[in-house]
Amino acid sequence: MLSLHSPTPEVQSQKKPLHTLDFVKAHISSHPRFCLFLTFLFIQVLVISIARNSPPCFPPVVRDPVVSTATGDKPALVSYDEECPSGRVYVYDLPSMFNRDLPLHNCTDLNPWNWQCGIDNNHGYGGPATELRRVLPGNLSKSWYRTNQFSLELIFHQRILQHKCRTPEPESAAAFFIPFLRWTRRGEVLMGERHLQT
């Protein structure tokens, strides 16, 4: 006969507190999609926290480095100021045969598709896109141009010639720009010389 004070085995198992691990196992087996969602959320939070707290991969900018001149007489200082915190740029003055004389005015010289027609208009932006007047509202059509996909070199060349950080002295420059417009040779390279002979 059983005593009144000793509980039955079923009652003993019900009174035991469940361990946390048992609860997690039961929850994972009954809700796998929710656990997968929590896993992805945890990975995203982990990646974002690592990315925000990582040190920058770029070295710090060194101010006023000593640069030796081409003649080797004395070192010159590259000038940095409030207006140009990254330094000034010197543009080499090449003969016009390497840049200004290269854009073609005869649009049949390179290839039959005439992709360079009007590429040198408006400093590389091309002519105004008048066909968009019907589509664009108000005066917005005046801001659109027929820019060629290969004219970025010409646009950059014109912008750097008028940039506020351009310097006439190469000794005070932190960067140098050689304005050779190679896009005009693209037709010869892409189409081959057989198209140039016709």
What do these coordinates show?
The chain is mostly helical. The chain has a domain at 88-197. The protein is built from six helices and four strands. The protein has helices at 9-15, 20-30, 32-53, 152-161, 186-191, 193-197, and strands at 66-68, 75-77, 88-91, 173-177. A two-stranded antiparallel sheet has the order 1-2. A two-stranded parallel ribbon has the order 3-4. Strand 1 (66-68) and strand 2 (75-77) form a beta hairpin.
Name its key features.
Exostosin_GT47; two-stranded parallel ribbon; 198 residues; two-stranded antiparallel sheet; 6 helices; single chain
Low-confidence stretches: none
Determine the structural class based on helices, strands and strand pairing.
mainly alpha
- Count of distinct strands: 4
What is the ordering of alpha helices and beta strands?
HHHEEEHEHH
Mean pLDDT: 72
Share of helix among residues? 25-40%
The biggest sheet, with number of strands, parallel, antiparallel or mixed sense and barrel status, is: 2 strands, antiparallel
Taking the alpha carbons of the first and last residues, their distance comes to 117 Å
Strand content: 5-15%
* Distinct helical segment count: 6
How does the overall form come out from the CA principal axes?
Answer: elongated
Q: Order of strands across the widest beta sheet? A: 1-2
Radius of gyration, Cα only, in angstroms?
Answer: 35 Å
Question: Could you give a short description of this structure?
Answer:
This protein is mainly α and 198 residues long.
